[in-house]
């Protein structure tokens, strides 16, 4: 997968960044595009995004972005979403909810399969 991030968009523009990576990728590679405003979701889809990541948005904003996407484009919500907020984000219609807290805030566990050694 190729992820078109906000820094790519800032440097190249949304449509140009998607076009660039679409030309460079393999036929089997999906393109995911990070957007920071609901209104940019359909722009990303129209430019060729396979997946639109709705970043750092409220559930209401995510719902708005999802409603503007064609059915064949996946929607992902990410950015500042904690476990308590998952049910509310799940009602927005997104296909995927990503949470960095699952890894960066997880407790560690020292576990061994060795016995008595």
Record keyword descriptors for this entry.
single chain; alpha/beta; 117 residues; 5 strands; five-stranded parallel sheet; TIM Barrel; 17% strand
How would you concisely characterize the structure shown here?
With 117 residues, this protein is of the alpha/beta class. The chain has six helices and five strands; from the N terminus they run E-H-H-E-H-E-H-E-H-E-H.
What does this protein look like?
The chain is of the alpha/beta class. It has one domain (2-103): Alpha-Beta Barrel (TIM Barrel), CATH 3.20.20.70. Helix content is 37%, strand content 17%. The chain has helices spanning 6-12, 14-24, 40-46, 59-67, 86-90, 101-104; strands at residues 2-4, 31-35, 51-55, 74-78, 96-97. Strands 1-2-3-4-5 form a five-stranded parallel beta sheet. Strand 2 (31-35), helix 3 and strand 3 (51-55) form a beta-alpha-beta unit. Helix 1 (6-12) packs across helix 2 (14-24). The radius of gyration is 17 Å and the shape is globular. It starts with a strand and ends in a 13-residue tail after the last helix. The relative contact order is 0.13. The model has no long low-confidence stretch (mean pLDDT 92).
